[in-house]
Amino acid sequence: MLTLKCPYCDVQAEETELHAGGEAHLTRHGPDSSDDSFESYLFTRENPKGVHFERWRHSHGCGKWFHAARCTMTMEVFGTYPAQTTKPPQAILDAITAKRPGWTWRELS
Ligand SMILES: [Zn+2]
Known about the structure:
Strand content: 25-35%
Bound molecules: zinc ion
Radius of gyration: 15 Å
CATH topology: Folate-binding fold
CATH superfamily: Folate-binding superfamily
Number of strands: 6
Number of helices: 2
Number of domains: 1
């Protein structure tokens, strides 16, 4: 079973205590954006076989949203962090590159 540590209340929560919220770090473009960028925001998602950044809500706990970095193949969790960030903390990026040499963070557009 997947367990994630809530960065707010410091509880190691089981998947049944959480609610998945899809991909993290999506950029919502403003009202002057093109139809293509809005369509991309609504429908285009990564579906990697490997490292993925996701949104989760501690729905049966503090109720707050947070981000998690994990591997979709091995279920290995590299870390969790508050959702009010535009980029994962450097410590999490370092933990990923330590186990996945050559892996690099890619900003979403
Ligand atoms: Zn919590």
